[in-house]
Specification:
single chain, globular, alpha+beta, Alpha-Beta Plaits, four-stranded antiparallel β-sheet
Length: 68
């Protein structure tokens, strides 16, 4: 599994963190290590695409900022 730090725009409180965790937990092949305001650390396998992760973040009401 690969690790990645996500930068997420629009989060401002613990409720935001809960919404992002909930949506990311629905992505098959992705494990959440930590979510905090503006960031998420995840591990994922090869079946997970950045587009799927971005969609989950958008479903929570926020925007994934592209980073390497």
């Amino acid at each position: 599994m690969k690790s990645h730090e996500l930068t997420i725009e629009g989060m401002s409180c613990d409720h935001c963190v809960m919404h992002v965790k909930k949506e990311l937990s629905k992505v098959a092949g992705l494990e959440i290590e930590e979510v905090r305001i503006g960031k998420a650390h995840v591990r994922y396998d090869d079946s997970v695409t950045l587009q799927r992760v971005a969609q989950a973040v958008e479903d929570a009401g926020y925007k994934l900022i592209a980073n390497s």
